[in-house]
Amino acid sequence: MVKVLERPPAELPDPGPGKVLHTWPPHARYMSDPLYYDTLGRDPFDQVKFWKLSDPAVRAEELEKILKEHLDHGKEYTDEHTEDEHRRQMMFTAAAKGAEDVLRALIKTGTKAHPEAKANEDQSCVPIFAAANHGHLGSVKLLIEEAGVSVEAKNEMGETPLLTAALAGEIEIVRYLLGEGADPRVRINPESEITQEYTPGQWAAANALELAASQGHMDIVKLLLEHPFYGSTRKRKNRDGEEDGIWVTPLALQGAAASRNFDMLKLLLERGAYPVEDDDGVTKGERLNNEREAIKGALPEAARLGDLETLKTLLSYFYPTDQQGNLKPFDLPENLHQDFVDGVFNTAMFDQPEKFEFLYSFDLKEPPKRSLNKLPEGMKLNLPRLLEIAAEHSALGMAKLLINKYNVDPNDMRRPPATTPLYTAASNKQTDMARYLLENHKIDLHKGHGRFITGPTPLWVAISIHAGDAAILLLQHGGPIEHIDDDLLDIDKPTKAVLVETATTRAPVRLIAEANAKERPLKNDRASRSSLLELDPETDKEWMKKLQQRKSDAELLEEEEESVDFGGNRFFRDLNREEEERLGHPKAEDEEDPKRRNPEFPTNKQREDEMHDTDWEPGLIFHDPEKDSAGAEVTS
Predict the structure, then answer these.
(1) What transmembrane ranges does the database entry give (predicted)?
(2) Does an H or E element contain 581, and which?
(3) How far apart are CA 135 and CA 98, in angstroms?
(4) Of 45, 58, 563, 585, whose CB has the highest number of CB atoms within 10 Å?
């Protein structure tokens, strides 16, 4: 069976004794702090590949060298970057990785483990928060018990380690911090500039219970509710000035409503003493007093983000139910309309077909300009857009519902960005979704995506983002490809081949024997990306014989002229870049023309950014600082 061979990680060459590596222009991190980072943007640990060392003795030796170097800079340090700041940066990195040996060594040097705001020290470099967020209990203990960091230490948002651990779902760290006296009543500081920028609204003043509830961390919520604090009854808090303690607040209910964890909502309703059933002819909604606003405030969150059971439970406080507790039909109030529309689109992300059916049963209408493309004719909601979201997140239940019940065409091309569900699935490495579409629907594999009729195919984008499983699946269903080496058509032994895409006219995909690829080197840059395959003659010859040659320009143009989208609109894309330039379209000033907003090579921006970080191989220069002479240039 064909398989994609793992790419060996990009390894930089060893410059040899007395030499270091340089690249130009230097990395942005070097420009910000040249005493800590090298020109490739590597910190002192990465420069010596410290995190790959497993021998404790070797690690200790390398660590001693690193610390000595960064303790000996002396007058080289400026007011902007201090020696202690660099050591605390090392401590932050070690805490995030749970490297207790590095933490202990830094603690012994007297490194200040937590910055002081009054000393104008960097409040974003906080090692204990890195350890708490990544679940490294041992590192948290070291920083508190040996480095003297307070359990109530705060970062630039006013958070404590308890809030960070509660949000991250790290129950053992939460339990430890509570045991050390951490105050569960502490809230994020809403006045902080960084809080206002990144945590707007009421969540800018959340406490540990509210944060844990919003993430569905049931075990942490239970632990916090059981915490004895000032004799609190731990019920809801209705008025300012009431007993201070751990309360089931309206914000906690909103968090639970959005968590897609119905058991979380039930727990908080029970512990907050909210009426959960009718009593002696009085409905639970009629039994609401001060808690009415809390329930009402949680409804929008449940509509947008929660599960169906949570939404129905909250609605049942305000709308009639039958004897079995099921909601009777009711008119949706205007103030919930937008939340229900948002919820419909989120069902495609979270794969909630039953919730979609419930929300869609109301007379919802998508607001203007919610999507880049026009609302399909006869639709009040953009169902093709929902299918695209489902493809992006591999929401198979929603995809099947939209295609089979609501007749959304899986070959429909949403414009912009001129992509189909299969292309979207491939560009997000969603192999299961791609398999469902290929095996259950007649998908056009030749159709070009993006700005031009001859644009990239799903196979092209799968290769582009190194989605190996999706690329193999598409090959087994026909490709299509532009070229296959004759050497591969009749293999009789395991053979390596290179599957390569090129970002040029027609976005060609080629399957080349490895030996031939070596004769014409394929540079691993944006103009050409590839995957190395291993082909098995026993299992792969059959599908290789069925690989399709991609249709010609004339064939693609003819099919484009005959195509219409879901709303009955005809496609009007240029054949290729040369035709676009001939017709003068690049000079057009009409930004409403959909062609102007279709990218030439649609791809996954997030995945592109990941690949930029992991696959980058810069040109290098060897430089001997002692002799001040440069060696030979080495390019990737």
Answers:
(1) none
(2) helix 577-583
(3) 8
(4) 45
Tokens of 107: 């603690």
Based on the number of CB atoms within 10 Å of its own CB, is 600 exposed (0-12), middle (13-18) or buried (19 or more)?
middle
Q: What is the CA angle 84-90-94, rounded to 5?
A: 140
Q: Which residues pair with 501 in a beta bridge?
A: 509, 529
Of 503, 496, 505, the closest CA to residue 529 belongs to 503
**Greatest C-alpha distance within the chain:** 93
CA distance 547 to 542: 9
Pair 204, 249: CB distance under 8 Å: no
Phi/psi at 497 (5° precision): -140, 155
Closest-CA residue to 131 (of 117, 149, 116): 149
In 3D space, the residue among 27, 69, 22, 16 whose CA is nearest the CA of residue 45 turns out to be 69
| Shared-domain flag, residues 320 and 410 | no
Whether 262 and 404 share a structural domain: no
In the three-class reduction of DSSP (H, G, I as helix; E, B as strand; rest coil), residue 98 is classed as coil
Question: Strand pairing of 20-22 and 495-502?
Answer: unpaired
pLDDT in tens, 574-611: 788 777 777 665 544 455 555 556 778 888 777 776 66
Write the CATH number for 519: 1.25.40.20
In 3D space, the residue among 353, 346, 350, 343 whose CA is nearest the CA of residue 315 turns out to be 343
Amino acid at 2: V
Q: Same structural domain for residues 393 and 297?
A: no
pTM (global) more than 0.85: no
Domain of residue 284 covers 230-341
User: Domain check: are 335 and 375 in the same one?
Assistant: no
SS3 state at 609: helix
User: In 3D, which of 92, 103, 102 has the Cα closest to residue 36?
Assistant: 92
Q: Are residues 267 and 396 in the same domain?
A: no
Number of residues assigned to the chain: 636
Contact of 253 with 241, CB cutoff 8 Å:
no
User: pLDDT tens across 131-173, in order?
Assistant: 999 999 999 999 999 999 999 999 999 999 999 999 999 999 9
